[in-house]
Amino acid sequence: MKADAGHGVSVRIEACSKTFADGTRALEPATLDIARGETLVLLGPSGCGKTTMLRIIAGLERPGASGRVLFDGADVTAVPIEKRNVGMVFQSYALFPNMTVAENIGYGLKIRGVPARERATRIAELVALTNITGLEDRRIDQLSGGQRQRVALARAVAIRPAVLLLDEPLTALDAALRDRLRGELDRLLRSLGITTIYVTHDQAEAMALGDRIVVMSKGAIAQIGAPREIYFRPVSRFVAEFVGAANILEAEVVERRLRLPGGFLTVAENVSQTHAVAMIRPETIGIVAVEAATLAGRVESVSFVGDRQRVVVAGAADKPLTIEAPNGATIRAGDTVGLAVAPDAIRLLPDAA
Ligand code: ATP
């Protein structure tokens, strides 16, 4: 949560569903509470309903019957977007190409009748905050993609919105710039304390920016939780695989032990089932001496990936395990290795999905 939850509002989406005129079911009834000042990320594959949910919060789309949107407890379902005090940034920045940077940032203030002196002060603050000092008098078509993105953000927050809605704002940028802006955006959102709802299909972006993440699949909420919870304690195979690399293995369970072809692993959870689907993140598997391990396998391949090495070990589980190991140890294809996994790094998933 942000330190200064200044002027954000809490947002509640209650039983909001959406079926479009052509019969497309974009959203199953969803209920969601977003705390004042929180950054909530909607994460999911293309077409899962993220943008639809965002547009319902904005007031650009009406939810199906009995669906309600509440800001600080007040029902705004019938309130049009211009009266909701929301700021929006889309993937395509939708800036005014013929206006200068300063005019773009000040636009919302001008139409709200904010006097010129106050406007100038506010624009100067935002220019500094979004790192675009010196560009105030440039036209939009004279800016780079990253600069345009900053202007779009500055314009959206200039009106001091109660809720900031961001729909894949970094998607159009190259990888290096995205990384840098992600950090800047995180700092900016935290310093402003605006309640923010951020749509992305990029799990790294979601992890870095979200106080909580809502993982969506086919119009429904698959899981809501803090980034670490979603990553280490996914509730389904879909979530496990969507938010990161995952080893999914099947095993018999006997007395809190997964019985595997190459030995066994102890799980933390007390399970009643005799057959389990387990998820283990590649970086939580340690490569140790065979004598020190309860599980062993044969190294199938080792690839150097820069800051670490990716090791594939066969024969330990029902399928080859992928391990992200530190560079230190020399591991060769053909070696027999022991594998160690902390019990709480093994997540048991429901059998289905
Ligand atoms: P993306 O990441 O590709 O933007 P998304 O998760 O934001 O996807 P939505 O834009 O919410 O997905 O769309 C959800 C579903 O609703 C999709 O199947 C989409 O084709 C459909 N849809 C969106 N808008 C309309 C519309 N106006 N009429 C009919 N169907 C629509």
From TrEMBL:
Alphabetical list of PROSITE patterns matching this protein: ABC_TRANSPORTER_1 (PS00211), ABC_TRANSPORTER_2 (PS50893)
Domain of life: Bacteria
Keywords: ATP-binding, Nucleotide-binding, Transport
GO MF annotations in UniProt: ATP binding
Domain ABC transporter stretches: 11-243
Pfam families: ABC_tran, TOBE_2
Record-linked SUPFAM superfamilies: MOP-like (SSF50331), P-loop containing nucleoside triphosphate hydrolases (SSF52540)
InterPro entries hit by this protein: AAA+_ATPase, ABC_SmlMolc_Importer, ABC_transporter-like_ATP-bd, ABC_transporter-like_CS, Mo/tungstate-bd_C_term_dom, NA-bd_OB-fold, P-loop_NTPase, Transp-assoc_OB_typ2
Gene3D superfamilies cross-referenced by the UniProt entry: 2.40.50.100, Nucleic acid-binding proteins, P-loop containing nucleotide triphosphate hydrolases
Homology family: Belongs to the ABC transporter superfamily.
Physiological role: Involved in beta-(1-->2)glucan export. Transmembrane domains (TMD) form a pore in the inner membrane and the ATP-binding domain (NBD) is responsible for energy generation.
Protein name (database record): ABC transporter ATP-binding protein
Organism name: Rhodopseudomonas telluris
Record lineage: Bacteria, Pseudomonadati, Pseudomonadota, Alphaproteobacteria, Hyphomicrobiales
